[in-house]
Amino acid sequence: MIVSTLENAARRLRMTPGLEKALEFLRRPGAAGLPDGRYEIDGGTVFAMVQRYETTKAGAVKFEAHRKYADVQFVAAGAEVIGWAPLRNMAVNEAYDEGKDVCFGTVPEGAWTPLRLEAGRLAVLYPEDAHAPRLAAGAPGPVIKVVVKILV
Fold first, then answer.
1. In angstroms, what CA-CA distances link 72 with 1, 18, 21, 104, 138?
2. Which strand (E) or helix (H) includes residue 87?
3. CA-to-CA distance for 118 and 137, rounded, in angstroms?
4. CA dist., res. 104 & res. 72, Å (int)
5. Is 22 helix (H, G, I), strand (E, B) or coil?
6. pLDDT of residue 63
7. I need a labelling partner for 20 at 20 to 30 A (CA). Which of 2, 29, 52, 69 fits?
């Protein structure tokens, strides 16, 4: 897991072709203003999902993990907390769905780290990173987020 600002990400990350394409997409003028939905960047290798939603209070935190794709989760507007834990800390309670590349589970309280992302910040989450997005950073509020998926 790596946390950075969009403006500093290229200096802090070991660049791969997929990651370069993800950052190019995020830097495009108006990328965060696109309607919600999926946007192809490089076929099934790199694609983005624009999402608008209201964050939620952390109650029973639902973690997720992926096997095929890394996530670049970029907050374009608003603020949220993403729970992070090493995958080994997650007890899977919804089996892996290969078509959606996701499984869900729980991580015990105290065994995960809250990451606060405000507008302009991003987190790169790899298959070994369990994560729980959409958590309120204080009071619940609106967020615009772009998640770029990179085949690893």
1. 10, 11, 11, 18, 23
2. none
3. 9
4. 18
5. helix
6. 97
7. 52
Nearest one of 132, 123, 147 to 49, comparing CA atoms = 147
Structure tokens at 39: 């946007």
Q: What is the pLDDT of residue 9?
A: 74
Q: 0.85 cut: is pTM over it?
A: yes
Architecture of domain 2-151: Sandwich (2.60)
pLDDT in tens, 60-75: 799 999 999 999 999 9
Residue 12: both structure tokens together:
């802090």
Q: How confident is the model at residue 93 (pLDDT cuts 50, 70, 90)?
A: very high
Question: What phi and psi, each to the nearest 5 degrees, are found at residue 22?
Answer: -65, -50
CA atoms of 133 and 141, how far apart (whole Å): 13
